[in-house]
Amino acid sequence: MKTDAAPQGATSYYEAHQKIYPREIKGRFQRLRTLAVFVLLGLYYVLPWVKWGDRQALLFDLPARKFHIFNLTFWPQDFYLMAGLLIIAAVSLFFVTALAGRLWCGYACPQTVWTEVFLWMEHWTEGDRRQRMKLDKAPWGREKILRKTSKQFLWITFSIWTGFTFVGFFTPVTELGARLMTLELGPWETFWIIFYSFATYGNAGYLREQVCKYMCPYARFQSAMFDQDTLVISYDTQRGETRGSRKRGTDHKAKGLGDCIDCTLCVQVCPTGIDIRDGLQIDCIACAACIDACDQVMDKVGYPRGLVRYTTENALENKRTKVLRPRVLIYAGLLLALLVGFGYAISNRTPLLLDIIRDRNALYRMTNQGLIENVYTLKVMNMDTRAHRYSLEVSGLAGIHLDLDDKEILVESGEVATLAARVRVPENGMNESGATITLTLQALDQADLKIVEPARFIGPAPSR
Hints:
The chain is an alpha+beta fold. The protein has two domains: about 15-350, no CATH class; about 350-460, Immunoglobulins (Immunoglobulin-like, Sandwich). It has 15 helices and 16 strands. The strands form five sheets. Strands 8, 9, 10, 12 and 14 form a five-stranded antiparallel β-sheet that branches. The protein has a four-stranded antiparallel β-sheet with strand order 13-11-15-16, with no helix packed on it. It has a three-stranded antiparallel β-sheet with strand order 3-4-5, with no helix packed on it. A hairpin with a 2-residue loop joins strand 4 (about 65-70) and strand 5. The longest helix has 27 residues, at about 140-170. The model is unreliable at about 1-5 (pLDDT under 50).
């Protein structure tokens, strides 16, 4: 008779998930994390409500294909700037990781930031670590229902607010709020509010450290950016071992004990549930809660701080360490160059686009006046926030002349004007069958707003 039961004493490779109850701790690093939470979430929730003139300061208007960032308006034609920004973000991550490990994870990652807020709400409604563990084990009763319901109310309300704010970056938030109050939201707005609300609720409320441990790829490839001089959170084995409890004032060294009293507070405060004393692990998000906990214990027992600290592998082994090493300097130099280049591209960006399309039906035409004529279709796109009137000039060949229906070209903000342009050159003005000419589009009401584009002028082959 066959059975699917594992033999007695066999090891299971799939352990059921155990809920982690991180203990609250105070300290200098936790104050930095709290400050980061307030700054980052403050920006997230406040920026959609900030006005810039008659519009929202930060608005990604997808239907109109406009991306407003304060006084700048970007268009799909500015996609190269977005690509540059993504490259800067990637190099910044490489630089920070090579210098000081997973600082991004511990202080600025959205998963970490929102999870911290959900933990605060859980602490407010269910109590401290011991009380939460006791509450989960207790049978359902009036107090448990009240506490759990209060937590769920805060979680769900905060998640909906988060989803609403997310959509508010793409739809004017005041209009979105008005339509929400009257239940007149469109299908896509409703979908994304619900989707992002559910994602926030699930990731920050339940998945928490599982996102960092199993879903996020960063922990898997961070080792490629680490070396023995990277600053990471580490336990000083030489100083801490052998672990063991002792009475205050006892000469622990005489008993062969290290500075670690084996209080396990560093484990209790860890949001991913690891023991930092086991060495560097991919589950560590560098939140430094274990440093604050250990420093407080060291203060109480009268030992020096730093049993758990930011340090390098070389420093722990009493080897020479160099934080500012070639790898870090190369990343820093590359990042600086990218930032300067990006800043230059933004400051010298011209909110004007001129596309020149040659008439494909006829390469050229000879007029009754003996002139060579080329016809072009011009598309003028005004990417500024206000309307402009433009003039168009042509140069590059002797006697060249431009014929337009309108001497002034009016283009509204965000509009594309299409017009036909006839360029004529005297037959004796060309030495070759083809030449490059230049079209200059100049705003009449703004001297520094102009664009210069080359075009190809075609004529008959010269007689030999």
